UniProtKB/TrEMBL annotation:
InterPro entries: Sortase (IPR005754), Sortase_dom-sf (IPR023365), Sortase_F (IPR042001)
Keyword Isomerase recorded: no
Organism in which the protein naturally occurs: Streptomyces luteosporeus
Protein name: Class F sortase
Disordered: annotated span: 15-40
Top-rank taxon: Bacteria
Keywords: Hydrolase
A UniProt-annotated Pfam family: Sortase
Length: 186
């Protein structure tokens, strides 16, 4: 499980310094007000047109504080302690495998090809579709994921997370995480 250790460390670590010139800017913190929207329901499906689509299941932290990712590489995990899609504030954090030794490519293998300007759609359990525009891509060392990814507060945004960088065969994990940030497409 490529994200488990990194997310536990991110909860305790300070803000990272991204490597290299970043494409786009992650959405700034602050409050977003959505009026007239129905109460948000949990996410059930995520898609980036032409790249991928996958079912979403809620996940939480294990006893060590690490994010539990779904065992199936075909399923994406939603950080259930964060925001729901369509919420007026907070980060909708969706994490998925890039690959699996036993099953090949994972649900989020397609994230590598997604660039700022792409449209992501998160469908809630109630069938309501919430569109986001990808505005930034960042690669973070496992130990340095931004703490604010794990928050139900702050400006409404989407964060799609998967593994990246070199694979360490001895530790059975990737060195980095790729994070795509999206803003609500109103």
């Amino acid at each position: 499980m490529c994200l488990a250790g990194a997310l536990a460390v991110a909860l305790a670590a300070g803000a990272p310094q991204p490597a290299g010139p970043p494409p786009g800017l992650p959405p700034a913190a602050g409050r977003t007000v959505l009026r007239g929207e129905p109460a948000p329901s949990p996410p059930a499906f995520v898609e980036v047109r032409g790249r991928f689509g996958a079912p979403v299941v809620p996940v939480a932290a294990d006893a060590d504080g690490a994010l539990e990712v779904p065992p199936s590489p075909d399923t994406v995990g939603w950080w259930a302690l964060g925001a729901r899609p369509g919420a007026a504030e907070g980060t909708v954090l969706l994490a998925g495998h890039v690959d699996s030794r036993d099953r090949g490519l994972g649900a989020f293998a397609g994230l590598y090809a997604v660039r700022p300007g792409a449209r992501a759609v998160v469908t809630g359990a109630d069938g309501h579709r919430h569109a986001y525009v990808i505005v930034a891509r960042r690669a973070y060392r496992k130990e340095q994921l931004p703490r604010d990814l794990f928050s139900g507060a702050g400006r409404a945004r989407l964060a799609l997370v998967t593994c990246a960088g070199a694979y360490d065969r001895a530790r059975h994990r990737y060195a980095q995480n790729l994070v795509l940030f999206g803003e609500p497409d109103r």
